[in-house]
Amino acid sequence: MRLKTWLLKEPKHEELVSCVGWTTADELYSCSEDHQILKWNLLSSETSLVVKLPEEIYPIDLHWFPKTVGVKKQTQAEVFVLTSSDGKFHLVSKIGRIEKSVEAHNGAVLAGRWNYDGTALITAGEDGQIKIWSKSGMLRSTLTSQGSPVYSVAWGPDSDRILYTSGKQLVIKPLQPSAKVLQWKAHDGIILKVDWNSVNDFILSGAEDCKYKVWDSFGRLLYSSSSHDYPVTSVSWAPDGEVFAMGSFNTLRLCDKTGWSYALEKPNTGSVFTISWSADGTQLAGACGNGHVIFAHVVEQHWEWKNFVVTLTKRRTMQVRNVTNDAVDILEFRDRVIKASLAYGHLVVATSLQCYVYNSRNWNTPLIFELKEGTVSLIQQAEKHFLLVDGAGLYMFSYEGQLISSPKFPGMRADILNAQGVSLSNDTIAIRDKRDEKVILLFDALTGKALSDGKPLTHKLEVVEIALDQCGPSTERKIALIDKNRDLYLTSVRHLGREPKICKIGSMVHSMAWNDTANILCGIQDSQFTVWYYPSAVFTDKELLPKTLYIKDGSEFSRAPHILSYVGTMVTLRQGDGSLVYSSVPPYSTVLHEYSTSARWEDALRLCRFAKVHRFH
């Protein structure tokens, strides 16, 4: 994966560009100290002046009213907040009319951010105060008052907490007055920018110590970059939380959510003060110190399955390579590719307007259907069908392009679902409930209705990751889950009125995946790579379970490996530094599963005698 950047030969702004913000996937607004607000149209490559601000308004930050809100009056959604150095914030319409100016702080207003549902606005000032305002600009409360300027703020995923900078410290303050404030020293220099992603719940910070860091929402450090040449002036999460961008002087970097770098660009921009991602997460724009606005597209993403490697070569072009015979197919799309998934012999590609479904036996004639929303954030595949998730909901489709079901549940926020919290099999959809993370909601894939009399599965601790097994009849469907303590549990999905039996099968498990053709589970357990050849044995006799394990020393995988897939006998892992490694699992168990499901007992017995492995007897 890398960034393809472009800059105009001559900057359109005469002074430093302080902030940028997308209205649609192809339209961007930029504000500069030359008092101009410009509109950039990426389709026609035209730039036009929206408004020339009064001489006393020097813009610092802008944020568009959230698009996801079902606003009755469309005018409200076409407004952005603009903060300025004269202590005011301004509500500005799309055509550049200042609807309202509010005296907010002593000194400059350094940041302004709408919450996710557009019901509140937060501003942070040079005076060290953070204030919350209604969407019409009425003061609700002063959240905090400190001695040093607050350079950056971010809302928590549920809009119930605020993250802000305080010198070298980061502070998470809940909106409830009595709740506990979390504060920690994050950097050795003043923190300039923070961002908090609502999908993965991770925090980003960039500071004058020339480092960027990734944190979880408890303030634990997940990654610290090496020191750059210049202060890190901007950090920003892509909407789906899979990657983020970081900006510094003449520097733009694309990074994985775990911190390691995919790509480094050295454009002639001066410092990049703000980075803004488009809603579909395919492109970003940066506000540059030398008057430029830099644009970058994410290209060269890879998807692998068995003998196929698919690469996004351009925004609207994919290359499919069959590694067994080196045959290459080029796939062209009408619109830009937003998301893709390759598994079970099918490639599913979501563009901004359509969904393409390719069969791996024929790359020439895809099945194409229209999409309502152009912001698909997640694609999950099973053998018989696939799930699309966008800002509006979840949709189950067959590989023939027919809509099968669309599960719904109270408090559903589809835009914050991720691969760890959603799992799919041929007959079941499992979703971790974001409102209470101990709860797993289970739905019938074909009807979209809740399973087990509408009663969800409840664990005793918060669940971190879930995964449904892929094979066998629906009555025997199992779900594996990793909880906050990193313990791995297994339980059945359909338990016919009985209380579900949740059995622990492993501890210190950091990542897991089911095999695609047999109900075999693999996981990274402490410093070992473990395969549970027959995890269901735990329901029969717990003492049998250790006899069904295959354990391999995990030291060869370096730091913090993450399992991407388990296809056939091959497990693909991503290491902590971003490199891919592969590990093979002995094939006997997979074949034995195959024999037992088709009742070929003679062959099964012969295989056991041939393998002569003690755990088979």
Automatic annotation (TrEMBL):
Annotated ranges, domain IFT80 second beta-propeller: 300-588
WD repeats: 102-134, 184-216
UniProt xrefs under InterPro entries: Beta-prop_IFT80_2nd, WD40_rpt
One of the protein's GO biological processes: cilium assembly
GO terms under cellular component: centrosome; cilium; intraciliary transport particle B
Keywords: WD repeat
UniProt keyword annotation of S-adenosyl-L-methionine present: no
Pfam families: Beta-prop_IFT80_2nd, WD40
PANTHER family per UniProt: INTRAFLAGELLAR TRANSPORT PROTEIN 80 HOMOLOG, OUTER SEGMENT 5
Protein name according to UniProt: Intraflagellar transport protein 80-like
Annotated source species: Solea senegalensis
